[in-house]
Amino acid sequence: MVELVVVGSVALDNIKTPLGEVSEALGGAAVYSSVAASFLTDVGVVGVIGKDFPNDYVEFLLERGICTKGLCTSNGRTFRWHGHYEGDMNNATTLKTELNAFATFDPELPDEYKKAKYVFLANIDPELQMRVIKQMENPKLIAMDTMNHWIEKDKQKVFDVIEMCDVLLINSDEAKKLLDTHNTIKAGKLLLKMGLKAVVIKKGEHGALLFTKEGVFSAPAFPLDDVKDPTGAGDSFAGGFMGWLAKTDDLSFDNLKRAMICATAVASYNAEGFGVDNLKKISYEDIEGRCEELKELVNF
Amino acid sequence: MVELVVVGSVALDNIKTPLGEVSEALGGAAVYSSVAASFLTDVGVVGVIGKDFPNDYVEFLLERGICTKGLCTSNGRTFRWHGHYEGDMNNATTLKTELNAFATFDPELPDEYKKAKYVFLANIDPELQMRVIKQMENPKLIAMDTMNHWIEKDKQKVFDVIEMCDVLLINSDEAKKLLDTHNTIKAGKLLLKMGLKAVVIKKGEHGALLFTKEGVFSAPAFPLDDVKDPTGAGDSFAGGFMGWLAKTDDLSFDNLKRAMICATAVASYNAEGFGVDNLKKISYEDIEGRCEELKELVNF
Fold it and tell me: What pLDDT is recorded for position A88?
């Protein structure tokens, strides 16, 4: 039974960082989020692939226990992203985006997904996010991400989706852009006032902040001195966060904090390898272990 | 009796931020550090002022219990800094620096300072930092800061001082520049290998990291949605850190962590007002209160 529905891009990525490069690697926000969440709960992924999508990649998702009934195969090629990182690797430079099959993506949920309690709308057009929400029968919690592109294109549409959601996971630059402020804390507090149960502001190598009515929680980043490829770190963070909530089915402030820590652990493993490579090598026990290390890291 | 000697600049600052401006305000790294530390221990400040230095400012330092015997008055004007902040206020733009009396500063320690157990060498010429070290009789712990200017001018001289110190407090960009790396964690670990007991990397609104042989500690920033003026935040952090160590006289990893938290609390109060204004309004109990809030902020 699908506990968590993840909707977003499925991609073939071409990535270059100071530590190496990969081509036609399995990627996309829905993939990173689903794979991260698959350590914790039963995930159903919704996305579109082209006829050129390697069967090995579908096999990998299935091996991770991810339901792929929501992956539709379109005529034409799979969405491709070409990006590279330099210096501190905090920001990707997009060299090329080929939308391909993704250009006409219209998410349609298999019936068994519609009953899921948890939904994560990764970064896609807010209109598509809205269409997914309308297909859900009685979700307990809907979370969303977004990005600069949609904020610049039509901020109101992003706010319309926020109004339908319980949790917003967003990176700090995007949060500040969305709220027209230079202060991350102010952005978080303003977003919370829009009626969200929780706002999660992702700060990459600086950790993440959780804003709820009960208070603010600061999650540290796991101290990595060997980031190989930050691609998908924010998406695997979201997947770890949602996977934890779906696994525990507890929306208390204390448990949202634990979800932040679990998310941090998964995202840190993700950044230690190219694409999803490193997530192939770890187990749930590794995530638990890193959560313990994170506790030590901030304990005083 | 002076427990902590603080050496560095004493300045008259002209600061403009999106939330206001001040002119000829009391400033300088030695002032911010001393005032912050004065909530915790007996501080003696070493610096130079000009004949134009307002007597009110000396009075204020004395009221805070700071020994000013190490402040020498030079002919000519006091060091002045003109700076402004925009946007996220993470970086100051220096509009003008007038070295004035500071140009010929040659720190000479009063005899009673030479017996102090704790020394903080704020950001000044590494040659001057070295001269201070040589004047100390039997210090228990020497900490230092530095800045881009000295790293660019002569990195080796900075390393020479590091070799004589126990603790380095440095901001993340400077740490990365000093170690020729883009990764803050790597910079911290490499600095630790140089023989320091502890490396503190300050990350402004993102908190601070402590590296010791026993492990890494991540201190959150206090979540402020109303930063008025970040000037001196790093220096008051250092003052709070050193003040705590001098007060407790305990160099264990656990106590270094508590010093980081105390430092964070003081620095956050500092950033809520222009110059040292807000530090005039708080008490030791306020700092304790904020330390408790910081515990809640990261507790899970």
Answer: 87
Residues of B in contact with A255 (CB under 8 A): none
Q: Return the percentage of chain B with pLDDT > 90, whole number.
A: 97
In a domain, A32, yes or no: yes
Main-chain dihedrals φ then ψ at residue B188, nearest 5 degrees: -60, -45
Let me know if residue A167 belongs to a domain.
Answer: no
**A39, A49 in Cβ contact below 8 A?**
no
Task: State pLDDT tens for residues B113-125.
Answer: 999 999 999 999 9
* Confidence band of A90 (pLDDT split at 50, 70, 90): confident
Q: A254: helix, coil or strand?
A: helix
Looking at residue A76, which CATH number applies to its domain? 3.40.1190.20
Domain count, chain B: 1
Torsion of CA B160, B163, B169, B171, to 10 degrees: 50
Q: How far apart, in whole angstroms, are the C-alpha atoms of residue A140 and residue B229?
A: 43
Instruction: Identify residues of B whose CB sits under 8 angstroms from chain A CBs.
Output: 18, 87-89, 176, 182-186, 189, 203, 205-207, 209, 215-221, 223-227, 254, 257-258, 260-261, 295-300
Partners of B143 in beta bridges: B120, B167
**What is the domain extent for residue B175?**
4-298
**pLDDT tens figures, B219-241:** 999 999 999 999 999 999 999 99
Which chain B positions have a beta carbon within 8 Å of A218's beta carbon? Answer: 207, 220-221, 223, 297-298
Quote the tokens at residue B271. 């950033």
- Rounded Cα distance between B285 and A180, Å, is 35
Q: Are B114 and B135 in contact (CB under 8 A)?
A: yes
DSSP string, B224-280: -S-----TTHHHHHHHHHHHHHHHH---SHHHHHHHHHHHHHHHHHHHTSSTTGGGG
SS3 content of chain A, % helix, strand, coil (to 5): 45, 25, 35
Complex ipTM value: 0.95
Contacting residues of A for B203, CB less than 8 Å apart: 206
Residues B161 and B130 sit within 8 Å (Cβ to Cβ) = yes
Q: Do A182 and B88 touch (CB under 8 A)?
A: yes
Closest CA to A27 of A8, A5, A3, A6: A8
According to DSSP, the β-strands at B20-27 and B11-17 are antiparallel
Give the pLDDT score at A91: 87
- pTM of the predicted model as reported, rounded to 2 decimal places: 0.96
The Cα–Cα gap between B242 and B186 comes to 24
> With 90 as the cut, is the pLDDT of residue B24 above it?
yes
The burial class, CB within 10 Å (0-12 / 13-18 / 19+), for A90 is middle
Which pLDDT belongs to residue B269? Answer: 98
Cross-chain Cβ contact B217/A300 below 8 Å: yes
The string of pLDDT tens digits covering residues B85-134 is 998 898 899 999 999 999 999 999 999 999 999 999 999 999 999 999 99
Contact A231, A276 (CB under 8 A): no
